[in-house]
Amino acid sequence: MESPCQKIVWDVLPAIRAAIAVELVKCGVSQVEAARMLEIAPSAVSQYLSGKRGYRIEFENEVKKSIEILAQELRDGKKINLVKRTCDICHQLREDEEDQCWNVSDYSPSERCGS
What we know:
By secondary structure, this protein is an all-alpha fold. The chain has one domain. It contains six helices and no strands.
């Protein structure tokens, strides 16, 4: 059985990175520049945009808004602690289970919350 932490590492974090990359590109940032901002390889951004990676979770509500704000701040060149902000979004996602802020059909509610 997979632990909740494994699900976060394999599914949630890539989905957050993918959502940020998509928002950056929607704002006119190149894939190479998005990769630099996210401190990942350009090939990872390409895979996020094509849906080959980080596609298992659809964010909604406040989590989606937090991702949009983070992408905008990155695009605007603000100094950001990317690790902390990504962790904050992950925590927000897990705390917001009652509002169904993510949609992973093969996870039970307890698996989604990490409990």
